[in-house]
DNA sequence: TCCTTGACCATTA
DNA sequence: ATAATGGCCAAGG
């Protein structure tokens, strides 16, 4: 029995779910997303998934390399669009690099915990 | 099967 | 800070 177009492998589904849960104005690395999806060492799969499901509406702009840089080559269409989208939602991009210490997703959790104390 | 290709990553120089 | 290196691992040919 074959279901229609909705047969997404569970690993992909997990990754998509994590990506969708990145808060607006925050960013996460491919590797971190993989870990949160329960798939450590699968950073490359995250990139692959983003490409395969590019037709879906995803906050793909919030996904960066582990060093905080945009993965696309500087000056490419993808690079420019990602940069614009990030700036739109309040993320500072300087020379293709984002300060993970300020905009990293984990940092967002820290802030929440701080409020409780 | 084997080989190549990536929206990657950590380490080293 | 940048660059080379080796490692990683699913997909597709």
Written overview of the protein:
This protein is mainly alpha-helical. The chain has a single domain, classed as Arc Repressor Mutant, subunit A (Orthogonal Bundle). Helix content is 48%, strand content 3%. The protein has 6 helices and 2 strands, in the order H-E-H-H-E-H-H-H. It has helices at 10-20, 30-36, 43-52, 77-88, 100-103, 105-116; strands at 28-29, 63-64. It has a two-stranded parallel ribbon with strand order 1-2. Helix 2 (30-36) packs across helix 3. It is globular. The model has no long low-confidence stretch (mean pLDDT 93). The structure holds a DNA duplex (13 and 13 nucleotides).
Q: Which fold name fills CATH's third level, the topology?
A: Arc Repressor Mutant, subunit A
Number of DSSP helical runs: 6
What form results from the Cα inertia axes? globular
What CATH architecture do you see?
Answer: Orthogonal Bundle
Q: Which strand-content bin applies to the residues?
A: under 5%
Largest sheet: 2 strands, parallel
Integer count of domains? 1
Determine the fraction of residues in helical runs and give it as a percent range. 40-55%
Count of beta strands: 2
Biggest sheet strand order reads 1-2
Q: Give Rg in angstroms.
A: 15 Å
Distance between the termini: 53 Å
Order of helices and strands: HEHHEHHH
Overall mean pLDDT: 93
Class by helix and strand content? mainly alpha
In CATH, the homologous superfamily goes by the name Winged helix-like DNA-binding domain superfamily/Winged helix DNA-binding domain
Stretches with pLDDT under 50, minimum 5 residues: none
User: What is the CATH C level class, in words?
Assistant: Mainly Alpha
